[in-house]
Amino acid sequence: MLIVGTFMGATIGCSDPTAPCCSPADLMIRIETGPSEVRQGDVVSFGAVVTQDGSPSEVSVDWSVEPAGAGLIKVDGRFVAYRPGGATVVAEAQNVRAEKAITISLRGVSDRTFSVVGHGEVRDRFTSDLWLNGGFAYTGTWGTRNSGTGRFQGNRLYAWDISNPSSPTITDSVAVTAGTVNDVKIRDDGTLAVLTHEGSGDGLNGITLLDLSDPLHPQVISRFTATLEQGVHNVWIDGDFVYAVVDGSSRSSGLRILDISDPANPSIAASFYGGDQFLHDVYVRDGLAFLSHWDPGLIILDVGNGIAGGSPQNPVEVSRKQTVGGDTHNAWYDPESGYVFVGEEDFSTPGKMHVVDAQDLANPREVATYTVEGTTPHNFWLDEENDVLYAAWYNQGIFAIDVSGELLGELHRQGRTIASFTYDGVGNCQSSGTCTWAPQWHAGHLWVSDMNSGLWALRFD
Predict the structure, then answer these.
(1) Positive or negative CA dihedral for 394, 395, 398, 399?
(2) If 0-12 CB within 10 Å is exposed, 13-18 middle and 19+ buried, where does residue 353 land?
(3) Cα–Cα distance measured from residue 172 to residue 303, given in angstroms and rounded to the nearest whole number
(4) Residue 342: which residues within 8 A CB-CB, separation 6 or more?
(5) Which domains does the chain have, with CATH numbers?
(6) DSSP SS3 for 21
(7) How far apart are CA 337 and CA 72, in angstroms?
């Protein structure tokens, strides 16, 4: 027999009428706060009050939702809705429960699609990363590709005129001694660029600095290789400093911070190694460096922010967070929300993006994930003005994700996917079809580098 009653619109009951705690005179629970209507993906809070013999009780409350697939509810009563329709929020204390009926509505993000504006083909080499500024762009090249007349190495950086998005055009290239030009970055003032070297063959891996006085025809300033001989996989450029990720899984690898105040004569300012496994990528913003350090996880350094007294010459670790699954590949930090969007590059499981709440930089917490079946993610770009994250997902193409508001739980179940697109069909990386490497939102268009086919300009319809 179930004893059931109502209190302020919330049902109360007890599954065992003989238990002393179940007497309404002894223990009562009511859901006192929380909405009756909830939108998919919005985080709301429910609160319950427990009384015994009419006085407040310290008995703990257990929260659940029925059906279970309707959403996620945390131990503190925070709830995020997944499935539209009716649901019931349940609060239980000992054998007494309170229920609140809720209605979940669709998130209602804009029903939009991508379309192709322009395409700059590169078919003889695999395309790697890209970076844009003003009316020009650069793309790197990766590995070795068999194409038509021979085998072509990833030893070039291409300069593009993108002033007409419908017709991106290669204007020049920089050839270097390398097997892969994996990464390229442009300094905020647009005067300087840096590219990376891996697999040089001559042991002189490292970086090359470029003068962008004529951005469509970049000129080499210097090549720096000291202590970078294992190869530089990714970089970030911030003012007079380049943050270089050195390949390998030992103390001889990790992060090198280079002083480029004299671009013709760079020098090592500092080093950092997080231990255990290799460093894969670095993102620098507001005096903080976010290191994607594979299984050690996301490591946050003070390189001038002031939170821990660090500087580019003396990086100081603030915190680290090992995301579930490891394989921490890349990160994007949004200082306004405090979220860090972290990629997990694991080809053996469904691809995941992890969301780390770093509002308290000293105590980052993983709060949400976004999953795509079929392959792993690669690089991200956040349109911070519109709270849209663009995520490259290799042969699954590009995804536009609504990341507005508080983020909690499984984002892919919350109606947050605005659009996805495979501009050349679901592909086979290093072969044919779509293989998206990196996106960048720029001047009203989404620019995408694709390993198999070059540079694409997309727009929302």
Answers:
(1) negative
(2) buried
(3) 35
(4) 292, 298, 323, 328, 329, 330, 331, 353, 354, 355, 356
(5) 3-105 (2.60.40.1080), 114-460 (2.130.10.10)
(6) helix
(7) 21
C-alpha to C-alpha distance for 404 and 40, rounded to whole angstroms: 12
CB contact at 8 A, 91 and 62: yes
Backbone angles phi and psi of 369, in degrees to 5: -140, 160
Global model pTM greater than 0.85: yes
Task: Decide if 379 contacts 331 (C-beta within 8 A).
Answer: no
CA distance 211 to 218: 6
The side-by-side arrangement of strands in the sheet containing 192-196 is 184-186, 192-196, 207-211, 219-224
Give the number of residues written for the chain.
Answer: 461
Which residue reads 């005179």 in tokens? 25
- Peptide linkage before 84 cis (omega within 30 of 0): no
Distant-in-sequence, close-in-space partners of 419: CB < 8 Å, separation ≥ 6:
112, 113, 114, 399, 400, 460
Residue position matching structure tokens 């070297």: 197
Would you write out the chain's pLDDT as a tens digit for each of its 461 residues?
A: 233 333 334 444 544 433 333 444 489 999 999 999 999 999 999 999 999 988 888 899 999 999 999 999 999 999 999 999 999 999 999 989 999 999 999 999 877 899 999 999 999 999 999 999 999 999 999 999 998 889 999 999 999 999 999 999 999 999 999 999 999 999 999 999 999 999 988 878 999 999 999 999 999 999 999 989 889 999 999 999 999 999 876 667 899 999 999 999 999 999 999 988 899 999 999 999 999 999 999 999 999 999 999 999 999 999 999 999 999 999 999 999 999 999 999 988 888 999 999 999 999 999 999 999 888 999 999 999 999 999 999 999 999 999 999 999 999 999 999 999 998 888 888 888 999 999 999 999 999 999 999 999 999 88
- 413 in helix, strand or coil? helix
- From residue 64, alpha-carbon distances to 74, 80, 102, 446, 448 in Å are 8, 12, 13, 41, 42
Classified as helix, coil or strand, 379 is: coil
Q: Give the whole-angstrom CA distance, residue 290 versus residue 360.
A: 14
- Please tell me the number of Cα atoms within 13 Å of 87 on its side-chain side: 28
Calpha distance 117→164 (Å, rounded): 10
Q: What residues does 180 pair with on adjacent strands? A: 198
